[in-house]
Design a protein that fits this description.
337 residues; alpha+beta; 20 strands; 27% strand
Amino acid sequence: MHLYQNHSLLNYNTFGLDVKTKYFLEFDSEEDLIDILKQSLVRENPLLVVGQGSNLLFLNDFDGVVLHSAIRGIQTVEETEDAVLIEVGSGVIWDDLVGYCVKQGWSGIENLSLIPGETGAAAIQNIGAYGVEIKDVVQKVKTIRIADGQSSVFEQEACHYAYRESVFKKELKGQFIVTSVIIRLSKKPVFNLSYNHLEKEVLKNGTMNLENIRNTIIRIRESKLPDPKVLGNAGSFFMNPVVKRERYEALQLQYPDMPHYFVSEQEEKIPAGWLIEQCGWKGRTIGNVGVHAKQALVLINCGGAKGKEIAELAAMIQQSVAGRFGINLIPEVNFIS
């Protein structure tokens, strides 16, 4: 257990906000975490569990205890001729895991390359990109219950995964801490290239294999998204809204070129970035904050911004989109007050 007071969270939020927490604790095992949860310091103060903070927006300094997982390591749990089951520590950097699996020739998460954050947070958030979500490979999520330090294992079905959602973000929010994630990958690569001309982009860069898919996705993401180390951001700030088919069809009559993705016979998904761009926000700055010039879904810290400034910009964007399209944008990012 490592305890720090008045600790900077600059390295634990990708917006690059210079905020502090009253106490910062790091654990490197389940046993360590269980001991920490017994401490009066933890039980008597507000508690926040963070990874790299790629989905957090701090509005102020945090007057409580921030916990961070340093549980690392990737272990093979089970292996057959066709598949491999691995257990990944919650503190493993997600993209490091993707790179490791690609080198091993294991497929299933290569489309999720270069997504920032750690594995524990990825399982909570149900990260997704290019037609793949982490729920597609998760078998189990191992956790410790905050209230009593008891270990609990959630099978995939019990995680209640949905678009950028899980049981850990809704019904059980703030009740469990993820310590490791067990995922199943294929040893006989099955490529998922159905998303928006991805196959064409991969083939432009070489032969069809896991490494080329990963490298292609990295290049695409780097061309669209700013590096948080250079320009503070949390990637996609808003979720892509899913609307009823009647609403979608009415909008399509007004905007024939509007991009969209089939969800079901009753629903259609519309890219939030397109909606924001239509409202004139792409590339616009207000004071220390702005909307990225290459991707309207990304809000940026132009330098020296406060969390409240970013929140105010997000609210203005929401108001614009609701006023023009009648659609309420929901943030992917969690606001921490």
